[in-house]
Amino acid sequence: MTAIPTTAGDEDAGPELPSDTWEVRRWSAASRWSLGPIALIAVALWLVPVFARISVVQKLTSLLILVVLAVMWNALAGYGGLVSVGQQAFIGLGAYGVIFLTQHHVAAYLAVVIAAVGCGLVSIPTSWLVLRLNVGGQFAIGTWVVAEVFALLVALDKSLGGGTGTSLTALRGYGPHRRQVDTYLVTLAVTFVVIAAVVVLLRTSLGDSLQAIRDDEGAAASVGVRVTRAKRTLFILAATGCGAGGALILANTLFIQPASIFGVQWTAYMIFMVLVGGLGTFEGPILGAIIFFYIQDRFANYGAWYLVGLGVTAIVFTLALPRGLWGAIESRFRVRLLPLGHEVRRRHREPGRATLAGEGR
Amino acid sequence: MTWANIVVQGTLLGGVYALLACGLSLMFGVMRIINLAHGDLAVVGAFLAWAVVDRWGVSPFVAMILILPVMLVLGYAIHRAFLDRSLRAGILVPLLATFGLSIAIQNLLLEVFSANVKSLGGNAGRITTASWQLAHGLTVSALGVLILVLAIVILGGLQLFLSRTSSGRRMRATAQDPDTASLVGINARDVYARATAIAVAVAGVAGVLVAIRGTIDPGAGPTQLIFAFEAVVIGGFGSLWGTLVGGIILGIAQVGGAHIDPQYSILAGHLVFLAVLVRPRARVALSRSFA
Amino acid sequence: MTALSVEDLEAGYGLLHAVRDVTFRIEPGETVAIVGANGAGKSTLLRAVAGAHRPTRGRIVLDGRDVTGMPAHRRVGLGLSLVPEGRRLFPDLTVEENLLVGRVRGRQGAWDVWSVIEAFPIIERLLFQKARTLSGGEQQATAIGRALMANPSVLLIDEVSLGLAPVAVDGLYGSLGALTARGTSLLLVEQNLKRVQAFADRILCMLEGAVVLEGRSTNLTREQITGAYFGLRGSSPPPSTAAATGAPS
Predict the structure, then answer these.
(1) Which residues fall within 8 angstroms of residue A115, CB to CB, at 6 or more apart?
(2) Closest alpha carbon within chain A to B267
(3) Which ipTM was obtained for this model?
(4) Assigned fold of B2-286
(5) Contact across the interface for B107 and A304, Cβ inside 8 Å
């Protein structure tokens, strides 16, 4: 917390006011309150396999994967201003990474981790390419082309199953119940790690840099913000997260094809979740994932009309509720659950005493 | 002889890509946005023409002309309905909104026309099979030549429109400085809507030609978009004729790739695109404004 | 009928009030100059009048017609043109194209490319050059010419002589004189107080968003203007004195 002194009033302006100092706080009352419930939820999630039916565990696994993807896409677009239409490149790469590793006798769940890290590594040279595309739309399609290239290269490799797809045979040894529970727990761990990574990143100076970049890239660069480095960090993080997501999709569904795992519908889902939930907010993507999961569960049977509805909803949200549902809640009720913002509070100094009086926003 | 063949076939293919890219380039030049639904709008044009041919049995070329006013109105309507508002809301919003539109269009087409591929080649008459033999081992299809000529004519026409007409002049002025444009009496919203209308109409024409050359299906939009974008990037943002050059280079790359192995054709195009990105000169061209 | 009437205008940027409670009128053929330090609100005032900035309160009446809610391009069609600060020519259009683009349907009149060249002779040899290659004075002449192509009845010019050589400014004011002779009203923002007193019929001095001094240029002394300009106490009369209502002395 830093104290910022203000100048006292004009000498002939009247009675002397107590001089105020201001301080910057990161934990709001709401964020302190929510720590308890968040911890409770975390513990409850760990214990789910003990109490719930296996079908619930499977659904929760799918939901958590969606949360990971949404949080990652939001990190790129909401915090970095980078609209990627090609994250499926890393989703697919993560999944096929696991196939490759397990073909070479690496344990399945370890392969998930290694594949995710591998995606992070591949994203470094990829970022050299795509971060050159400075105007938003160019970056979007550039990432899409990269995804298409990855998909084509994988489809050409016969050892990975080619165009018709492969299954994850390494998990065959487990019984289906045990496999599902293990997959769920690994997914849960990955979800926590990903969310923690985003929180940590945002609380460091990277978070402030990104805010500056979002507001005005040129101005940010002129005050010394390393714009490209900040974007690259985000890109690598998102690639790793999406790679983990893809690997977990494989573990959850056991069979993948290049066309579907590298398909642009993943981007459609991510965009929907983040737009509806709240672009640029932290809690938004999680909310969006829950909503999307429910919609998918309920309406996927309606086939193409369901997707038309998704598309139209995305359009409506971008125009009417650009900050999404959570963004609307946040501005209406001024609530922020995690200690990610900055609040300026006034601290009145009475003669002889120092107390904190009230909140000033 | 095969190299010459690759270049010739690639050039003819480039005509299609140039037409696909033309509208994308125009919208980017005037409004600085990439319409992620551009490919899908080309597919809409193709399906509209197919519906006309299916219903009234006219030639696809006649259908192409018939759907032109429809595509113009469609583009204008899309702009006034939501693209206009998106433009004022920031950089992310138009991308997201057009992406939503893309998804909506693809699945709407799926519902209305089913997933089966369609082709207009069968109804186009002898032109689809006619060809000339230039030299030993080097044949040139009449359809390919027609498409290339059409591309040159349309690109040329657009260029003339922009440089010689008052409406085109206003479009260029608005592209360079929309705030000042309104200060000199230009209705910027109207200019943007017209640009979108033209872009969508040309996309429709391109879509019809793609369907005549081969097949089209409701999900073909994204592929057309990627080809269009690659053609624009390779040729350099900022000029319509660059789009033609870019389309031709892309076409040659794809034909060349196919020559090595049919599976490599699209990949070859992607690799050329990525290679252009790496070249420093491409970066300068990427940010040049529309003149 | 009054050419332009601005009533109780307020405009700003969020919580910052750049223009506070400004009221004035311009008669046909009259030249009114606005002076004031940087940040006084002059540009915002002109932009609000032209329609480029939405006011929070107030009315703008052009030739008896309320244009307050109208977008900028429609006001041009009704005869109100602004030459913005920094000239803002279209950089990749030629000078001729910049002029042509200023034409507005329904506003034919004395001004066309030839008469603009006559008024600003330096433009003639630059007609086919791209606007980005022009010097400051050439750009200003072209920008004014572009605004004139719409045959405005009221012409607003923001920062007439900023960044221009004195010789270029002389020529500019000479041409502006010819303009007013034809009945066009002028509202100028000008930093050069000497020019202002010599050229304008009336002067408005703005300070921190409000008009603190208003009067015929012949009635106001140099000291009065500079006093108001810098907000010195005691040296500017309150706006309600007789000298400020525009009555000839």
Answers:
(1) A93, A94, A95, A97, A98, A101, A243, A244, A246, A247
(2) A149
(3) 0.85
(4) ABC transporter involved in vitamin B12 uptake, BtuC (1.10.3470)
(5) yes
